[in-house]
Amino acid sequence: MIRTKDFYLKKIYNLEGKRIGVVKDIYINFYEKKLEGFEVSNTAFFSKKNYIDIDDIIDIGEDIVAKDLKSGNGLKFKDIKDLDVMDTQGRLKGAVEDLLIDRNNYTIKAIIVTSGFIDKILKGKEIFLLNECILGEDYVLYTGKENISFKSIPHNVNEYEFIKKI
């Protein structure tokens, strides 16, 4: 699994080896649960071509090799980053911080939610599966069960014990 922050500022080259730019943001399809492409911080000024489709990418390693640039529009990750996540009872779960993406087929598996800096240190981050989330205009609705949760816990936090909710 990889996260969206693993893509930011990766250099993008075309097939001839010329540097196109760097990754500025990622385009996602929340409903189909997949990565659509990348927004490119283009080296050519005033260029409307600032998008690389995921199908046009040859290789993603330390750098990205792609065929060509296009004009792109759609939902960017920055549009949903820091969006509130609420459960079905109206309780605030936190804010969207990152996405977990499958490295093999670039499908989005989960969202990482944090409820603040102090809670991130003490309790870790919560991970919600994407098929249990509904994207709205003002917030993300989490429809999953309360007694089943995934967490990303900071290293060396041994004093904190997790209590199973019944």
TrEMBL record:
Domain PRC-barrel span(s) in chain numbering: 3-65, 76-128
InterPro entries: PRC-brl_dom, PRC_barrel-like_sf
Pfam families named among the record's database cross-references: PRC (PF05239)
Protein name according to UniProt: Photosystem reaction center subunit H
